[in-house]
Amino acid sequence: MSQFRLPSLSQRVSVSGRTGSGKTRLSAHLLSLAGYDKQPFVIVDFKGEELFMLTDCIREIGMHESLPSKNGVYIIRPDISDESKAELDDWLKRVWRKERIGLYFDEFAHVPYRGKLNAIEGILMQGRSKRLPLIACTQRPCHCTRFLFSEADMHAAFNLTLRGDQERIEEYIGHKRLIKPFKPFHSGWFDIAQHAYWELKPCPNDDVILQRFEDRLRPKRRFG
Questions:
Q1: Could you give the number of structural domains in the chain?
Q2: Strand runs (DSSP E) across 68-203, as ranges?
Q3: Rounded-to-10 torsion of CA 110, 58, 147, 108
Q4: 93 touches 119 (CB < 8 A)
Q5: What residues form DSSP beta bridges with 74?
Q6: Residue range(s) defining the domain that contains residue 27
Q7: What is the pLDDT of residues 101-148, one digit of tens each?
């Protein structure tokens, strides 16, 4: 019998759903449980996600700074201009070369992937060997590189409005999986290696997720 499992430090997860479906909370929940006690994780925050602004445990860094080498959670804040996307592609190439950095994307459709030598597709194709785990959240799967879905080890799918987005996901998880709408904030979880499917209930609320970040990222006090 298949057993539900969280992604490892060599696995990739796609999380798809329309606005307000619950995808950001599930993605943040997955990040809060990730292995950032073993290697650094970086949030690529295009939209200024409020949840990540509610704690000072996540350190903001610039794309021109040295890549983080200490364990923990970091955040960069690119915008969607062509200049910023070019800088992001260069930054991702540095991540690919350095290896052993986890990545979280709050809207993967903004990540540049045009051209033969783009960084994100290299990360997706070689992420296992380079230990580049990835959590990618998107409301527009049809605007993302197909490598996100072909290389992902797990897929989480919430309700999607447009049939084109549903079809993109169904290419990889099986047809008719998304025809029946999920209940609000419920989702389907597809583990590719196990050929297994689960329906997930809503995630813990933001306070629980934030507290987990606080508990795991703040230095432990020693007494005596």
A1: 1
A2: 72-76, 102-105, 134-138, 154-157, 187-191, 196-200
A3: -20
A4: yes
A5: 42, 59
A6: 12-216
A7: 999 999 999 999 987 779 999 999 999 999 999 999 999 999 999 999
